[in-house]
Specification:
This protein is of the alpha/beta class and 216 residues long. It contains ten helices and six strands. Helix content is 52%, strand content 13%. It has a six-stranded parallel β-sheet with strand order 2-1-3-4-5-6, with helices on both faces.
């Protein structure tokens, strides 16, 4: 039996935590290991419980979700954070992604979509609500200099970048290209370094901006 994905739920509304716990606990591959009522407790629980995934709201007392994401990613980089919130305004979306959120979903997401998001993010993908993705692409195009560094990439690195933009995990990219997982990991690291990008989400947005992949 494969190990379950360990999930921590961080939200200041008890009804939200209880509802998520009740639903997600029905999934055979998901284990709800704990809850947190605010950002400070979320960071403490990550230190104590070492979850694979944290579901976090961006608006919480004592320490907001954005700073909690930043601290969680610094404390335990292997823990992935998915924002689950009602807020889609720019001052929440952009800082959350910059802080290291691997997913950004709204609370009206369909239950099965949330389950798939947890599975995909745990597998190394990034997952954004369509509205959020559109905002990020627009912001990326507006802020980033238009000079392209694609020429600095090898042909294989461009292929890997295209697969990242399609939402593929390292394992899926390795299978697609017929190389080892470790090789893909090295390519991803080189891509981020050459393009001066922080994470896979920024890499995906870069590929879209440079028209390296058509996601339609």
């Amino acid at each position: 039996m494969l190990p379950k994905t360990r999930v921590l739920i961080a939200d200041d509304h008890a009804v939200v935590r209880q509802g998520l716990k009740a639903f997600l606990s029905t999934q055979p591959d998901i284990d709800i290991v704990g809850e947190a009522v605010d950002g400070i407790e979320a960071v403490e629980r990550v230190r104590e419980l070492e979850p694979d995934i944290v579901l976090v709201d961006v608006v919480m007392p004592r320490l907001d979700g954005i700073e909690a994401i930043r601290q969680i990613r610094s404390l335990r980089p292997s823990t992935k954070v998915i924002v689950l919130t009602s807020f889609v305004d720019d001052e929440k979306v952009f800082p959350a992604v910059r802080a290291g959120a691997a997913g950004y979903l709204l609370k009206d997401v369909e239950p099965q979509e949330l389950i798939e998001a947890i599975r995909r993010v745990h597998a190394g993908e990034s997952l954004l609500h369509p509205t959020v993705a559109a905002k990020l692409v627009h912001e990326f195009q507006r802020r980033e200099p238009q000079t392209s560094a694609v020429a600095d990439l090898t042909e294989r690195e461009v292929q890997v970048l295209q697969e990242i933009a399609r939402g593929r995990s390292n394992k899926e990219i390795a299978l697609e290209l017929g190389v080892a997982d470790k090789t893909v990991k090295t390519h991803v690291s080189n891509i981020l370094q050459k393009l001066r990008l922080a994470d896979r989400t920024q890499a995906a947005l870069y590929a879209v901006r440079e028209h390296l992949v058509d996601l339609e």
